[in-house]
Structure formats: C-alpha cells, structure tokens
C-alpha cells in the first residue's frame, strides 16, 4: 500500500525552554512522510522548496525511503520558513517569523506514478491546494485524510467546505473543532463537522490525547505523560502521518483499526516531542517503537470490571 | 468494608449557562458519601451543619444509607454556603459567595463505631482538621485518601505537609499538582508529590480525565466526552468517593484494582455533571451505572497491536 502526502517542507527555527536551533528541517509533509515511511509504507510527497534547500535534507528524506518525485525545487526561490518560540509550559508558542516564499505560488503537481496512491494525506495548506491535489488523482484513494487550521477557517471558509466534503477523515485540534462547529461540547462539534463531509473526525487535544469519532462511536487515545516535552513542533503532523501510515500499511479502514492507528500516531508523536525537529523520529528503530507502543498499552490497560 | 469521610456538607447556589438554582444540597462529604454508599459500601460522614439545615436533606442522606452519627448540628449556627457561577465553557467558574459559618470553628469528632473504618477519605478541608480525624482512628485505616486544594498550599503548607506524610493516596487537580511540586511535567510532579508521603498520586484533569501514578506505573482514565456538561459541581468529590468506595467494596488496594476504581470514579463523576447538584447521582440505579461503565470500556478498548 502507498501513501501520498501534500504539505509543507520547511525550514524551522525553534526556541524552547531547553534551547534553540538554527534553521532546521521542518514542515508538515516532512513529519507525515517520515512517520508513514517508518511504518514501512511506500511514501511519496508533493511539496515545494527553494534553491536554498540543502542536498543534505534531500538525502535524509531519500534515505528514509520518501519518494521525492513530487518535490518541486524552485532554483531561484527560497524555502518556506517558520520561526517560533515556545513558552515555559510548552503548550503555547509565539510565531516570530513566517516567510511563505516559494509556498506563495505553489501549484502542486502529482507525479504520474502517484496518481493511484491508496491513501492521500492532505497536510495543512490552503484548501484550494488540497483540492487541487485530490482532483489530480486518477482513482479516488481508498482513504483521504485532511488536516487544516483556524487560519483557513477565517479566510477560506468556502474553499475549506468544498474540499472537506470530499474527504474521509479530518484531523484538527480541539480549539479548531470548536471554532469550526460553533459547539463547545466536542461530541456535538464532531457530529456537526461530520455533517460537513468527513465520516471520521479526529480531535487532537495536545498533551491530553486525541478523540476519534465515527457516527455515535467514540474512542479516546491518551497522550503519554512525558518526563519532559522538549519540542512539540511536528507532533500533530507526526500523529497524522502515523495514523494514515498505519491504515495504509494494514489496508483496513474499519473503526477498530482506526483505534490502533490513532495509538500508532500518538506513540510516534510522543517520540517527535523528545528532541528538536525530526531528530528523534529519524533515529527511531522498531524496538524503540514497540517499547513505546507498550507504554501506551500499559497506560490504557485495565482488567474487566463489572458492577 | 466501611468508608468514613470527613468533609463539608453545604448549601450550594449555582448558576450555569443552563439555568440557576436556589440553595441546594452540596459539599464534598455529601458527594463522596453518596458515591460510596451507592456502591454498597457501609458509609459514614463526619461534618457539621447549622440549625438551618433542613430535615429533608438529613432524610435524603439517610435514605441513601449514609450514617450521620458524625454529623454535628450547631443549632444556632448557619450551614456552610458557597455560591458560584460557571462560564460558558463550564471549565471555569467564579466564586460569588463563600460563607464558612459553622465550618469556621469545626472540631470534628469521629463516632466510636467509626474509629475502625477500613477506608478513610479526607475531603478538602483545613489540613489540621484532616489530621485531627486521622488521629482519632483507633486502627490505622487500610487506606487513607486525601483531597486538598491550592488554598491550603498557600496558607497552611506546613500543616498540609504534616498530614500528607501519613496518607496513602492524594487526589488533586493538574494545576494544584504543578503548584505543589513546582514541576510542569505531571510525571515529574507526581514523583515529587509521592516523595512527600502518598505512595499513590491521582491527578485530575477535568474534561481531560485523570492520571493515576504509583512508582513508575501510570494509568490514564479518560473523561467521557459528554453531550453537555450541565453542572460540574461535585464532580471531583464524586470521583474521589467512587474511587475510594470501590476500593473499600472490593478490599483490594493493588494498583490493578485502583485502575478499576478510577474508572468507577470517572463514571460516577460523569453522572454528577448531568444535572444540578446531587440530583442525577441520587437517582442513579445499577443498570444505568453499568451502562455508563460500558461507555468507558468502549471509549478505551482496542484490540492488541504489535508492529
């Protein structure tokens, strides 16, 4: 099975209470495709970078078996750049710089051999860009997962509504779900969002885990209480990549399997938070992933109770 | 098995986006003992009310099999009164009135036949009052559970440290755990708090559930995503009463059983939130409780995963 993602490939400059970085590799498509590929899924990305994007990062992504046929390189352009500073609680951050650069005129082109990908992950981008990628697919993917953010709700609501009508799963955070639905209760919010199109609604709650809704079914995947959150950048994208990647790998899109997928996503996201950028994700091996999955099992496991 | 609780019995006047109440029955000991008694545990309370406390509430508590031998009635005093208004999100509230009244000079007396209770639940009160009750026990209870709040950390830190040294379980919310430990990471906070005395640390996170820590073991009980939270007053006390009551009923104080206990507590707490005051808790029957427990099982259940 194969997974294609469209999203940003970026330079991030980060500061957290634990230190700071220079410009390092970031972007939603980077995290999504690394997580998916790590699960052994044939993974490709559609994105754009500038001539300043180092060969070293290209090599890194290739070494992680991410197919870069869909990565446009604009020789005389500059790569999308985001600079952020996390507060002491690591839950809130300030954006210091956003330079769209080559992203401003990005017109995604899906490579011919990716037009039949099984799973399509639409990373957080302008809804028209997301729709443009979906339209280029020759066959409707078995599963289309979409991530978005409040920014697009504010300034591209109609376009967002048009694209989410055609996706299977939406993955957003609690604040965004409340804004999108006008409902405070997440159960009500999920129901309203599902009525906009996606049969399955994932509501991410950061350090409080994630909720998975489908019809009247609901599943709660906790986040692992961590010794220290070092840098949460990319956690949400890693989560989405782990979720979509697990479904692609297993070729089972049932609600039961989505529960497992959400735990894979949560486990991988917790790994991403342990170091700056993609460092801990790119060094994760199967034993460490299994150990992490085991921590989740223990965190949620209890023996049958009856009153 | 028997459970004795010390805590407030109060008048609450509540306002939420869904309506308002006159003065109704409230107080930590009320919720704790109702939850415990509902699980079939022999339950007694130590508290104080004024001459204005209506016979109707006495009868209600008695009808729920709560032993009131330890309820002092100060004929010429007034019952503790709290008035609060919840904001639209139901997660934050303003205290409009706090009248300590008879609580100001409360000197708890444990009835002779309760001095050998199996489980002792120290509801949120001045740490000296909590310590006074613990000292009156003839035999060290099999389990002592303590609830407290930031107010006592601010103004009675030494007394709080003295009493928590002697308890087995502490139940506090995330903000309080962070204040108490000076650690943002809840895992680190729990470790520091455990070093102050209680072997088991429960950190309540409101709509995000609760964490149970013991040594390096951790368990996450989610809160049920509710259609509507009507009134969260008493949810934390109901949780503590359900937790302690379940342990008293089963006479099993292992970590495994505490996991089950925390789910019972969460299930009962979700019931309390459905109506104002104790109304929904006092009308809960065994079938409805089992249905609610089943919702929790579904919320957390997933089939084995392996990578």
> The biggest beta sheet of chain A, please?
9 strands, mixed
Q: Enumerate the strands of the largest sheet of chain A in spatial order, edge to edge or round the barrel.
A: 6-5-1-9-10-11-12-13-14
Q: What is the overall number of helices of chain A?
A: 11
CATH architectural group of chain A:
3-Layer(aba) Sandwich
State the helicity of chain A in percent bands: 25-40%
Strand residues, percent of chain A: 25-35%
Q: What form of chain A results from the Cα inertia axes?
A: globular
Poorly predicted ranges of chain A (pLDDT <50, ≥5 residues)?
Answer: none
| Beta-strand segment tally of chain A | 14
What's the CATH first level of chain A? Alpha Beta
CATH topology of chain A: UDP-N-acetylmuramoyl-L-alanine:D-glutamate ligase
User: Pair with the most extensive interface?
Assistant: A-B, 43 and 42 residues
Mean pLDDT of chain A: 95
Q: Give helix and strand order of chain A, one letter per element, not per position.
A: EEEEHEHEEEEHEHHEHHEEEHHHH
> What is the domain total for the residues of chain A?
1
Kindly report how far apart the N and C termini of chain A lie: 44 Å
What class, by secondary structure content of chain A? alpha/beta
**Rounded radius of gyration of chain A (Å):** 18 Å
Tell me the CATH superfamily of chain A.
Answer: Ribokinase
Question: Can you characterise this structure?
Answer:
2 copies of one chain form a homodimer. By secondary structure, the first copy, chain A, is an alpha/beta fold. Chain A is built from 11 helices and 14 strands. A 9-stranded mixed β-sheet of chain A has the order 6-5-1-9-10-11-12-13-14, with helices on both faces. In chain A, strands 2, 3, 4, 7 and 8 form a 5-stranded mixed β-sheet that branches. In chain A, helix 1 runs parallel beside helix 8, helix 3 runs parallel beside helix 5 and helix 6 packs across helix 7. The longest helix of chain A has 18 residues. The radius of gyration of chain A is 18 Å and the shape is globular. Chain A starts with a strand and ends in a 7-residue tail after the last helix. Chains A and B meet through helix 7, strand 14, helix 9 and helix 11 of A and helix 7, strand 14, helix 9 and helix 11 of B. Chains A, B: GO terms for molecular function: kinase activity. Chains A, B: Keywords: Kinase, Transferase.
């Amino acid at each position: 099975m194969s997974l294609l993602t469209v999203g940003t490939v970026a330079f991030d400059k980060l500061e957290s209470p634990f230190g700071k970085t220079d410009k390092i590799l970031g972007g939603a498509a980077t995290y999504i495709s690394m997580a998916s590929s790590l699960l052994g899924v044939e993974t490709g990305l559609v994105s754009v970078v500038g001539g300043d994007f180092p060969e070293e990062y290209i090599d890194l992504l290739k070494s992680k078996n991410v197919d870069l046929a869909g990565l446009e390189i604009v020789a005389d352009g500059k790569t999308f750049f985001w600079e952020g500073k996390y507060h002491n609680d690591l839950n809130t951050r300030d954006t210091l710089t956003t330079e769209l650069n080559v992203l401003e005129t990005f017109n995604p082109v899906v490579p011919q051999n990716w037009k039949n990908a099984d799973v399509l992950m639409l990373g957080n981008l302008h809804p028209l860009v997301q729709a443009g990628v979906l339209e280029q697919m020759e066959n409707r993917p078995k599963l289309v997962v979409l991530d978005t953010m409040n920014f697009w709700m504010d300034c591209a609501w109609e376009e967002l509504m048009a694209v989410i009508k055609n996706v299977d799963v939406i993955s957003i955070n609690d604040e965004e779900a409340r804004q999108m639905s006008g409902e405070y209760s997440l159960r009500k919010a999920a129901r309203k969002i599902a009525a906009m199109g996606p049969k399955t609604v994932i509501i991410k709650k950061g350090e409080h885990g994630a909720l998975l809704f489908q019809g009247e079914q609901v599943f709660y995947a906790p986040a692992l209480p961590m010794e220290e959150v070092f840098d949460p950048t990319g956690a949400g994208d890693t989560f989405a990549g782990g979720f979509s990647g697990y479904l692609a790998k297993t070729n089972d899109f049932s609600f039961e399997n989505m529960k497992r997928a959400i735990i894979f996503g949560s486990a991988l996201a917790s790994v991403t938070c342990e170091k700056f950028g993609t460092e801990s994700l790119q060094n994760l091996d199967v034993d460490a992933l299994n150990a992490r999955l085991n921590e989740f099992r223990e965190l949620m496991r209890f023996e049958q109770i009856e009153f």
